[in-house]
Amino acid sequence: MWPDRRLMELFKIEHPIVLGPMAGAVDADLVIEVCEAGGLGSLPVAMLNEQQMRDQVAKIRDCTAKPFNVNFFCHTPPVPNNAREHAWRERLKPYYQELGIDPGAPVPSSNRTPFDVALCAAVEELRPPVVSFHFGLPEAALVKRVKDAGCLVLSSATTVKEARWLEANGCDAIIAQGAEAGGHRGMFLTDDLASQVGTFALVPQVVDAVKVPVIAAGAISDARGIAAALALGAAGVQIGTAYMFCPESKILPPHRAALKQSRDDETVITNVMTGRPARGIVNRVMREVGPITAIAPEFPLAGGALAPLHAKAQSQGSGDFSSMWSGQAGALGCEMPARQLTRALAEGAQTLLRKMAG
Amino acid sequence: MWPDRRLMELFKIEHPIVLGPMAGAVDADLVIEVCEAGGLGSLPVAMLNEQQMRDQVAKIRDCTAKPFNVNFFCHTPPVPNNAREHAWRERLKPYYQELGIDPGAPVPSSNRTPFDVALCAAVEELRPPVVSFHFGLPEAALVKRVKDAGCLVLSSATTVKEARWLEANGCDAIIAQGAEAGGHRGMFLTDDLASQVGTFALVPQVVDAVKVPVIAAGAISDARGIAAALALGAAGVQIGTAYMFCPESKILPPHRAALKQSRDDETVITNVMTGRPARGIVNRVMREVGPITAIAPEFPLAGGALAPLHAKAQSQGSGDFSSMWSGQAGALGCEMPARQLTRALAEGAQTLLRKMAG
C-alpha cells in the first residue's frame, strides 16, 4: 500500500526505509533486524578494518537472506600538518591535566578508513546488494568496479548541485541529507555550512533535479516524518537517530542517556569531534572549544587527540568528550527492538497516509 | 476534504493557508487576493505608521468580507550605542565612497515600529479577526487588550521552548518557524543560531508539546510542502516566499530577479541587513561584511546606515545592499496571481493527499 514503489523495486525490499549507517552505533545485529522487518539495513565500515567488515557481512548473511547495504566513507586521507596538530593538542592540554592523562603520550591515530583498492576488492568478492558512500564518491574507476560487481550505488547530497553530480557519476539513488541530520554532513562540493539546506527545502528540490529515486534523510524519526518525506516527493527515507534508541544499537551509556533526554534545540553542527562538520548533542568540549573552530586538524585527525579524553570521561559515565551524534528529532525516538520499530514505522506511516486522504 | 479542520474553524477560512506577513512585499492588494481565495491574508505593519495601517485595513475591508490577519513586530526598541553605530558607519564607509554618497550625511532612522499602546488602541478600534506577532509577544497587558477586543492571537516559535511559552501566554495558534524560513527569525528566548531547528524537525516536536493548532512555516512553497506539513501534524501552513513571486507583491526588481534565479543553497541567515538574524539571498554586503557580524548595531538600527546604499544601488538595478529575503525553497516558486496561486496550492495539496493514500 505504499504510494511509491520505486525503492522497493530497486532494492527488493518491503518498506522504503533505509537504516542510517552510523559508525560506532550500528553493527550486524541492527542490520539484520531492519532487513528482517523489510527495510534496508546498512552496515557502516568507516570504523572497521577489512577483516571486521568481512566478519560482519558473514554474520548478516548467516542470519538473513534479505538485501543489505554496506556503507563506506570516501574522504581523501588527511595531509598531516604538524603545526595544526600541535596547536590542537595544546588547546586540549588543560583537559588532559584535569582528567589526569599524560599530555605527552603519543596521540592515537584516528580510525576512519576511506574506501580504497583493498576494500573495493573485498566488495567485488562479497557483492553486497547495495553499497553506499558518504562524502561524495570514490574515484570513478572504483565506482565502476563496484557497479560492475552488481552492487547498486548510493551517496548523500546536501545540495541540489551535489545531487546532480552524484546522478551524473553513477548513483542509482540519492540520499538527500537535510541540515537536521545527525552525524557527519555528507557535503563534498562545498564547505559552506551557512548555506546548508534543511530537509523540508532540500528534498523536493532534489526530487525536481534528478531522475533517480531520492531517499530523504534528516529529522525523520517517526511515522509522521516518513509520510511527510513521501509527500515531498521522496521515494523513501533513511533513518538514523531513531534506531540509536534500539537495544541492538552499540552506543555508549552517556550517549544513550543524552538521547533519552534530548530536546529539539540541543544539537549543533560541530567540527570539534573529528575535524569535519557533524551534528551531535552539545557536550562540554563542543561548547568550550567549538562548535566550529579553525584549529581542529583535518578529518579525521581531530579525533585522535580527543580519544584519550573520550575514553577516560566515558569510563566515568560522562559524554564530555564523546561524539554523541543525533539529528534534531531525537526527542521523537522511543526505545524498542529494531525489528519492531521498523514495522511500527512502516505501519504507522501507511495508516497516516490513508488518514490524510481526508 | 482537508484532513484537519481546526484552523479553518478557528479562523473561519476555507483552506489552511496563511499568507506570510512580509514587510515591504505585502500590502492590502496581496492580502485581499489570498483572503478571497479562501486563505488567511496577513498585513505586515512593521514598516507602516498607524495611519498607513488604518488605510490598508480600510482597503482590505472595502474589497473583501473575509477574515484577515494584521501582523506586528514586538521587539524591544534598541538602546542607542554611539560607539557601535559609529563603527558600523566606518565599516560601510568604503561603500558610500564607491557609490558616491556623502558618508557624513545624517543616517536615516530605521523604520521598524514595534507594537505599542497607540497601535494597540488602533487594533481595539479596528478589531481585525486575527493579530499575529513576531519576536514573541508584547507585554501581557497589551496581549490581554488585543484578546479582549475579540482578536485571535498568533506568534512564531523557533524552538519547542518558545512554543510552550507562547501557548502559556495566550496564543490561539502557534507558527512553528523552521530554520529554512525567509525573513526575520522569530526567535525570542534564545539568540543561539547554531541550534535553530529545521522545519522537518520542529513541526512534529511543537505539535507534541502544545495543545493549540500549529501552523508550519519554512520552505513551504508548493503543494508537496503543504501535504508534508500536514503529515508532520501541522493544522496548516504559513507561506511567504512563494507569494513574493505574485504580481501583487511589492518587492523591488533586483529582488524579483534574484528570486526567479534562486537556488536551494543561495540563502543564509544574516544580521547584516537589520541587526537581527534573517534569511535572505546572499548579496554583496552580506558576503563581504557577514553573514553574521558582531559590529552590526542593534535591530533595527543596522538598516539605517544601509538605507542610502540600498537606495542608490537599487536605483541602478542592483541588490548589493538590499534585503532580498527568501526561504530555502524559493526555487519552487512560480509567478502567478495570488488568488490563482492560493487555489492551486489548496487543490494541489488535496489532490496529492488523496494520491498518497496509495
Folded structure, characterized:
Two copies of one chain form a homodimer. Chain A has helices at residues 6-11, 28-36, 50-63, 82-99, 117-126, 140-148, 160-168, 199-209, 223-231, 241-244, 253-260, 284-289, 302-315, 338-356, and strands spanning 17-19, 41-44, 68-73, 130-134, 152-157, 173-177, 183-184, 214-217, 236-239, 267-270, 278-281. In chain A, the strands form two sheets. In chain A, strands 1-9-8-6-5-4-3-2 form an eight-stranded parallel sheet. Chain A is globular and about 60 Å long. The two termini of chain A are 17 Å apart. The longest helix of chain A has 19 residues, at 338-356. Chain A has two domains: 1-75 and 112-250 and 334-358, TIM Barrel (Alpha-Beta Barrel); 84-110 and 252-323, no CATH class. In chain A, helix 9 (223-231) packs across helix 14 (338-356). Helices cover 41% and strands 13% of the residues of chain A. With 358 residues, chain A is an alpha/beta fold. At the A-B interface, helix 8, helix 9, strand 10 and helix 14 of A face helix 8, helix 9, strand 10 and helix 14 of B.
Molecular shape of chain A: globular
Q: Report the total helices of chain A.
A: 14
Mean pLDDT of chain A: 96
CATH homologous superfamily of the largest domain in chain A, by name? Aldolase class I
Specify the CATH class of the largest domain in chain A. Answer: Alpha Beta
The residue fraction in helices of chain A comes out at: 40-55%
Quaternary organisation:
homodimer
Major sheet summary line of chain A: 8 strands, parallel
Q: Can you tell me the CATH architecture of the largest domain in chain A?
A: Alpha-Beta Barrel
What is the gyration radius of chain A calculated from CA atoms?
19 Å
**End-to-end span of chain A in angstroms?**
17 Å
Q: Order of strands side by side in the largest beta sheet of chain A? A: 1-9-8-6-5-4-3-2
Strand-residue proportion of chain A: 5-15%
Helix and strand pattern of chain A = HEHEHEHHEHEHEEHEHEHHEEHHH
User: What do we call the CATH topology of the largest domain in chain A?
Assistant: TIM Barrel
Q: Low-confidence segments of chain A, ≥5 residues, pLDDT <50? A: none
Q: Which chain pair shows the most residues in contact?
A: A-B, 58 and 58 residues
Number of folding domains of chain A?
2
- The total of beta strands of chain A comes to 11
Structural class of chain A: alpha/beta
